[in-house]
Amino acid sequence: MAFIIGKKIGMSQYFDKDGKVTPVTLVEAGPCRVAQIKTEEGKDGYRALQIGFGKIKDSKIKKTQKQKAYRYLKEFRTAEDVGKYKIGDQIDVSVFKEGEKIKVSGVSKGKGFAGVIKKWNFNRGRATHGQKHQERSVGSVGCRFPQRVIKGKKMPGRMGSERTTLKNLKIVKIDKENNLIAVKGAVPGKKGTLLEIRAK
What mean pLDDT, rounded, does the chain reach? Predict the structure, then answer.
């Protein structure tokens, strides 16, 4: 199973040989280093690799924290044999192929406090017959019994800033020299968002 950590750069366009344009998201993926290996035989009891992305300058690391030399650490569970990896091994964009389907996880953009129309796609109320500043309100939230608001009721509140995963995204282009992956369509988050990329 192929996986890597990356950072969202932004959206662009890709023109193929026939001149057809495809909207793509550019992701700076890796290079990452293996920071920890977990095995079923060890104390963890499962197989996983922990990889680090974004090197921190040595001047900002205390001598006692040399192992925490990466800005980001993520763990990926895998069914493959992790014995072929060693701590310090590099993982780069070459683990993927152009045209391959992947899934991308990240934290979506925060939208702030939102009403029920924007957040839950409710319909607005009618604007006539005694209506007064209530066109976009939530409406009735309670019931006769029990005399309280039921848990899970769709209400106004903060929107976005949630972990989101998009599946079946296609890799359009890979630039190994610059550690770039061009993914067809949009991916979660704003520019600079940390992304986890896995093979489907």
Answer: 88
